[in-house]
């Protein structure tokens, strides 16, 4: 691999660590500005977690203009800062949002197209839509979701001559006596190599696969849930597995090793409840008309909460376990009428797999079906008296037309009375971790004195300060969009630095 003494063909003006959404966006932007760019990727392929994302949040985009949708950057900014009670780095949030519509334009000019929809289906058309889709129309969906974005960025990399060195793992950042970046230690084919550069962009994703970091930074989450949910061929439980060993917190560790400060560690992009079962059984169990009880047999939240917040309630329960309980009438109703609009229409009116999924869930021990409440209580681990009381109280609320406990939306109040009864065990799940490295609005990594570490940038979920503790449903696609916008900003600034030094 070595060429002349001390030189490595991977030496470059800018080195990007990680070929996911933020890393590739950084590489393309830096290269377009004229810098020589190399991307280091430890996997065999590019993309990271980005292909799993459905779309990106944006305001004042050309897509919105074409669709006569008016959402301003100010509106998005205020929404996010108010939602997070100004706990974030406001300048950073502003910079990311300001880059959003412009990046949609940038990607469209590279051949990608977008459409806009609500989080769970087409844009709301009237007041009768459920409250969960009342957010502003900002969710930009490309064909093939995040894969479409990655494909577009890879095409640009090829055209610009950006080299991606696969199966190359970044190990250590190298600095001079003043703390400025001088290079990067990597391992390739088991051999260590030193790459020389004055500008490194860390875009290595989160740390969800690093149980030690999970325990340290996310004590609110019982890490053993990850193992309970790792069952192949199930949709929700596989999510953490999908990210797999990609997200080991490497970038965060490397930055901390040279004195970077931390920001926003401990944030999980929650997306449960995760029920170890096929999709259709999962969707049935998550119906808001079912009730959710803890292992003591007590309801603990309104069941029509959105996906990002409902797990917060489950995290507070003993053992962080939740049981969804419903009756045969609900099941038959769904089999007959379908699920309605879910996940962009993908599973619309399709419930044919329910019976088979439930059978498999029973075989896996994650579901109990019985005519007897006592048997269900025993399976849950609750006393029959407590579960009976919970069911009776809930059925009384249904009769009365008001949930006196949690004010659940009245349209979902349906008595649970037709046997057999079903109990499905689920755990809180999450997609990725967010946060870690402290950056400013230029994506420069900051040290303990709040000063930039010369030549070091970070973007994506490896960096913090842009997401609150609970994902903001008003900004669907921020989890994927903000990394891409931050990547572009980091790439542009790193390129400027390299060209001006
Ligand atoms: C199932 C799923 C669904 C999702 N859905 C959505 C959604 O609908 N909307 C949304 O906004 N967000 C969604 N997200 C979250 C979103 O995908 C991520 O937040 C986003 O893709 C993160 O981008 P990133 O560039 O920071 O990291 P990634 O895209 O994961 O890139 C990180 C890259 O760094 C590489 N790397 C790590 N360590 C090293 C190292 N030491 N050396 C070299 N390379 C390294 C990794 O292999 C990886 O390729 C979803 C996530 C998942 C898992």
- Hetero compounds: flavin-adenine dinucleotide
Shape: elongated
Quote the average pLDDT: 90
Structural class: alpha+beta
Which consecutive residue ranges, at least 5 long each, have pLDDT under 50? 124-134
Sheet with most strands? 6 strands, mixed
CATH-defined topology of the largest domain: FAD/NAD(P)-binding domain
Annotated CATH architecture of the largest domain: 3-Layer(bba) Sandwich
Distance between the termini: 27 Å
What gyration radius follows from the Cα positions, in whole Å?
24 Å
> Which CATH first-tier class of the largest domain would you pick?
Alpha Beta
What percentage of residues falls in helices of 4 or more residues? 25-40%
Let me know the number of strands: 19
Strand content: 15-25%
The CATH superfamily of the largest domain is known as FAD/NAD(P)-binding domain
The number of helices is 17
Strand order of the largest sheet: 6-2-1-10-19-18
Q: Number of domains in the coordinates?
A: 2
């Amino acid at each position: 691999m070595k060429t002349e003494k001390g030189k490595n063909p991977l030496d470059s003006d800018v080195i990007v660590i990680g070929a996911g959404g933020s890393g590739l966006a950084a590489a393309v932007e830096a290269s377009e500005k004229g810098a020589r760019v190399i991307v280091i990727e430890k996997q065999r392929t590019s993309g990271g977690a980005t292909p799993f994302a459905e779309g990106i949040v944006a305001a004042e985009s050309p897509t919105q203009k074409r669709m006569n949708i008016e959402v301003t950057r100010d509106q998005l900014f205020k929404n996010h800062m108010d939602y997070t009670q100004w706990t974030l780095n406001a300048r950073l949030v502003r910079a990311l949002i300001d880059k959003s519509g412009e990046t949609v334009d940038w990607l469209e000019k590279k051949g990608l197209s977008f459409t806009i929809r609500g989080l769970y289906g087409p844009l709301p058309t009237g007041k009768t839509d459920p409250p969960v889709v009342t957010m502003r129309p900002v969710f930009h969906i490309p064909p093939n979701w995040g894969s479409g974005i990655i494909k577009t960025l890879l095409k640009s990399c090829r055209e610009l001559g950006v080299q991606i060195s696969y199966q190359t793992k970044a190990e250590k950042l190298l600095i001079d006596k003043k703390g400025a970046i001088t290079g990067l230690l990597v391992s390739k084919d088991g051999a260590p190599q030193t790459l020389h550069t004055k500008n490194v962009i860390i875009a290595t994703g989160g740390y969800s696969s690093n149980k030690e970091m999970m325990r340290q930074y996310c004590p609110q989450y019982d890490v053993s849930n990850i193992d309970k949910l790792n069952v192949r061929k199930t949709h929700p439980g596989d999510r953490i597995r999908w990210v797999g060993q990609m997200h080991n917190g490497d970038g965060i560790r490397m930055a901390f090793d040279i004195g970077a400060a931390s920001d926003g560690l401990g944030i999980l992009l929650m997306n449960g409840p995760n029920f170890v079962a096929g999709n259709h059984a999962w969707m049935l169990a998550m119906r808001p008309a079912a009730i959710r009880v803890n292992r003591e047999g007590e309801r603990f939240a309104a069941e029509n909460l959105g996906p990002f917040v409902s797990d917060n309630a489950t995290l507070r329960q003993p053992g962080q376990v939740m049981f969804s309980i419903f009756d045969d009438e609900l099941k038959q109703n769904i089999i007959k009428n379908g699920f309605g609009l879910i996940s962009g229409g993908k599973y619309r009116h399709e419930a044919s797999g329910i019976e088979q999924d439930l059978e498999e869930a029973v075989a896996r021990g994650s579901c109990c079906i019985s005519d007897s409440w006592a048997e269900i209580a025993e399976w849950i681990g609750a006393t029959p008296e407590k579960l009976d009381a919970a069911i009776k109280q809930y059925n009384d609320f249904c009769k009365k037309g008001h949930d006196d406990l949690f004010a659940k939306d009245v349209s979902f109040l349906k008595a649970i009375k037709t046997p057999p009864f079903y109990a499905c065990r689920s755990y809180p799940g999450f997609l990725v971790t967010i946060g870690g490295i402290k950056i400013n609005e230029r994506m420069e990594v900051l040290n303990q004195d709040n000063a930039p570490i010369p030549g070091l940038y970070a973007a994506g979920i490896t960096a913090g300060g842009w997401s609150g503790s609970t994902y903001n449903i008003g900004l669907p696609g921020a989890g994927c969009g903000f990394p891409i916008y931050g990547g572009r900003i980091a790439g542009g600034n790193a390129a400027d630095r390299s060209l001006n030094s």
